[in-house]
Write a structure and sequence with these properties.
Elements (H helix, E strand, L loop, with lengths): L23 H4 L11 E5 L2 E4 L4 E4 L2 H4 L8 H13 L10 H12 L5 E5 L2 H20 L5 E5 L8 H6 L3 H4 L9 E4 L4 H13 L4 E7 L1 E2 L5 E2 L2 H14 L2 E5 L23 E4 L10 E5 L19 H16 L2 H22 L4 E7 L2 E6 L7 H10 L2 E2 L1 E2 L4 E4 L7 H18 L3
Parallel strand pairs: 3-15, 5-6, 5-7, 7-10, 10-11
Antiparallel strand pairs: 1-2, 2-3, 4-12, 8-9, 11-12, 13-14, 14-17, 16-17
Helix pairs in contact: 3-10, 4-10, 11-13, 12-13
């Protein structure tokens, strides 16, 4: 039965929930510092809280809602797929998983795809693949993966160890062995690290980096830095892993962040924007390092027909609606507006940086304001933003954001800053 012939299922009405939002913290673990609004529904780049107030959503689920909220293509895909087949097992072939893998390979440098449920899982898969490759192909007994300070690779034990930020690792030791940290965009430090590790018989199996550090303060990678790393990896048979969880799927104005740097990784990971808000992750690699065999790695929910069917719709919509062009145009518009704010508040704003629709408003280190202050002020003015550290405010709207919505958001942020900065 094709999706076009499916008969919509009747909607079963349920009585209104008696749950009181004020009881939220009684039942939900306090792993997030939440803002004092309860979001109820969304459409496009807008969301509404339970009081009916409208906000421009420049968080997008933290760079996840690629097509915004309630996009017609996603609504149709979700409706059709849940009536057709939502989950079986990876013991069987499913058309949706195969078609999504094909799209990803045809639109990237990868040859193979492994599906999972999140960015952390995708990065776990990349770490495992790199370690097996090191043991079975390179003959390395104690493989080391180099990552960068201020990086972010996930919340699992291995990925917080890969993450070069002590604040995420505190109280979770003993951490996983086999990682070494270097400053981002510093090629001399990287080359020295490889030399030191080689001297101590700890051979480097892989270098794992974000093309642009998101949680680390919206810091774009340097072109010459990444091109030299690619040369080093070729010379020394080191795998280059790109964490594309936040910057992939068109977020930077190209399908993948690494395309901005003129290099190809051997392994890269995707999640967040891949499913447009439906949980899915992917670890992709070139065929030469695809050393996984049946039983080496798995995921019960990874690649199920529901998640891959919706993700395939996101991918095709990204292409069919030419959203990369919108990302590039709206990104330039947003950065121009933020730079105008920086000129207006030179003692507060130090820099504006980013690619496409991932941009950071960088506050001076010695400024009294913190990123959280700006975020709260913006909420009061009707715009949702997200910090990227103590001194960077991140702007990551849906890739469908309009010219008018960018202008509205900039005006709101300007009003918010005016309440914080006194002449």
């Amino acid at each position: 039965m094709s999706p076009e012939t499916l008969v919509p299922m009747p909607i079963v009405s349920t009585p209104p929930s008696e749950f009181n939002p004020a009881d939220f913290d009684t039942y939900v673990m306090s792993t997030y510092g939440r803002y004092g609004i309860t979001l109820d529904r969304g459409e496009g780049c807008r969301v509404w809280d339970t009081n009916g107030r409208e906000y421009l959503d420049f968080v997008a689920g933290i760079a996840t809602c690629t097509l915004g909220h309630a996009h017609p293509a996603m609504v149709a895909a979700v409706t059709q797929q849940i009536q057709k087949l939502h989950h079986v097992s990876n013991l069987y072939y499913t058309q949706e998983q195969g078609e999504l893998a094909k799209w990803l390979v045809e639109h990237s440098c990868a040859d193979r795809v492994f599906f999972c449920n999140s960015g952390a899982e995708a990065n776990e898969g990349a770490i495992k693949l790199a370690r097996k490759y090191a043991h079975t192909v390179l003959g390395i007994q104690t493989p080391v993966i180099i990552t960068a300070h201020a990086s972010f690779h996930g919340r699992t034990l291995a990925t917080i160890t890969a993450t070069g930020q002590p604040k995420y690792q505190k109280n979770f030791d003993p951490l996983m062995p086999g990682f070494y940290y270097v400053p981002y965009n510093d090629i001399g430090a990287l080359e020295e690290a490889i030399r030191i590790l080689d001297q101590n018989e700890r051979q480097v199996a892989a270098i794992m980096l974000e093309a642009l550090q998101g949680e680390g303060g919206v810091r774009p990678g340097d072109l010459a830095y990444f091109q030299r790393i690619r040369e080093i990896c070729n010379e020394k048979s080191i795998l280059l892993i790109a964490d594309e969880v936040q910057v992939g799927m068109g977020r930077t104005g190209k399908y993948w962040g690494y395309e901005n740097l003129g290099i190809e990784p051997d392994i890269f990971t995707s999640a967040k924007g891949l499913g447009g808000g439906i949980p899915i992750g992917a670890m992709l690699c070139k065929s030469f390092c695809d050393v996984f065999q049946p039983g080496d790695h798995a995921s019960t929910f990874g690649g199920n027909p529901f998640a891959t069917g919706v993700a395939l719709t996101v991918c095709r919509t990204l292409e069919q609606e030419n959203l990369l062009a919108n990302v590039q145009a709206r990104g330039e518009q947003l950065r121009s507006g933020l730079q105008a704010l920086a000129a207006q508040y030179p003692t507060v704003i130090a820099d504006v940086r980013g690619w496409g629709l991932i941009n950071g408003l960088v506050l001076h280190a010695d400024a009294e304001l913190a990123s959280g202050d700006v975020v709260k002020a913006a909420i009061e003015e009707g715009v949702l933003l997200v910090p990227a550290g103590l001194k960077v405010v991140r702007f990551v709207p849906p890739l469908t954001v309009s010219e008018a919505e960018i202008d509205r958001a900039l005006e709101a942020v300007k009003r918010g800053l005016a309440t914080l900065v006194k002449d």
